[in-house]
């Protein structure tokens, strides 16, 4: 089977809920970002075969195929198609999977895989609340004993913390780690190459992640109340932040890369997707990591850097207990607890962080794993070239 090459992966700075990116329509946020990616790599937009973008809240401003709308809003050629997909928090990583797999199958030469989420303008859960009903059918509710509505991730995270015997202090210490590593990466300029600033409506430029709290402490985190009355361990401090942002990657066949003089940054080694119990739902990174490694013929010891989405602190802590990856290779520039989690863009954000950090360290293999609503997870292994 043919190879698929990662030519570039970039992201916007991640905005806090209601802050820097509140005034920009998500269609324009994604469109501007895709156009900036094409300008950075110097590729004629007319040469793109397809655009695949992830977005979770596909209602209101993010409805009606935001990938296509973003492409057109950016003034790019009408002849290029686009589609929007939803694999919950792993949506933009799944867009990368589909794009790379299309190249490997020989049906694409150049594809953009992207993602976007404006959780300020399209609130979390908006697509569930639209209309008189919900996705929770009587049969689905009966199968999982649900009596309070849709699957609840915070309560799933609490159950995982208890199952793996994680304390509130464990969760808060991990959260502090995320902020400190992200602050160190920002201050050292390590995010500079992966970030493309956003031109804001009415003037001004947004160029730095807003969610990093370099001055937080364990004492401050410990003082936060649980997220819900019947929880003890999960707080806003040890969970990912509600955020706005976009990410995009260009994926090419080797022949297209040669013909256009594009320098590949990495090649795709393996992909994996799994399903798990949708009630706890957040354990998926454990089996999907194992599956991705098995498909690649690699071991944990072979992976130079791991990016595991910090949906909640217990997700990564339980994953590490099971997988055994050394902490010095895991989320080395922080994660969603510090940087934020714009749902549909997070997988692309992680890919941008991973490939640029692999280059900085001259590493070889990197692995991304993301848990997803509804009890799923996806994972990708890349090799730097």
TrEMBL record:
<feature type="active site" description="Proton acceptor">
    <location>
        <position position="341"/>
    </location>
</feature>
<dbReference type="InterPro" id="IPR020613">
    <property type="entry name" value="Thiolase_CS"/>
</dbReference>
<feature type="active site" description="Acyl-thioester intermediate">
    <location>
        <position position="89"/>
    </location>
</feature>
<dbReference type="InterPro" id="IPR002155">
    <property type="entry name" value="Thiolase"/>
</dbReference>
<protein>
    <submittedName>
        <fullName>Acetyl-CoA acetyltransferase</fullName>
    </submittedName>
</protein>
<keyword id="KW-0808">Transferase</keyword>
<dbReference type="Pfam" id="PF02803">
    <property type="entry name" value="Thiolase_C"/>
</dbReference>
<dbReference type="InterPro" id="IPR020616">
    <property type="entry name" value="Thiolase_N"/>
</dbReference>
<dbReference type="Pfam" id="PF00108">
    <property type="entry name" value="Thiolase_N"/>
</dbReference>
<feature type="domain" description="Thiolase N-terminal">
    <location>
        <begin position="6"/>
        <end position="253"/>
    </location>
</feature>
<feature type="domain" description="Thiolase C-terminal">
    <location>
        <begin position="263"/>
        <end position="384"/>
    </location>
</feature>
<dbReference type="InterPro" id="IPR016039">
    <property type="entry name" value="Thiolase-like"/>
</dbReference>
<dbReference type="InterPro" id="IPR020610">
    <property type="entry name" value="Thiolase_AS"/>
</dbReference>
<feature type="active site" description="Proton acceptor">
    <location>
        <position position="371"/>
    </location>
</feature>
<dbReference type="GO" id="GO:0003988">
    <property type="term" value="F:acetyl-CoA C-acyltransferase activity"/>
</dbReference>
<comment type="similarity">
    <text>Belongs to the thiolase-like superfamily. Thiolase family.</text>
</comment>
<keyword id="KW-0012">Acyltransferase</keyword>
<dbReference type="InterPro" id="IPR020617">
    <property type="entry name" value="Thiolase_C"/>
</dbReference>
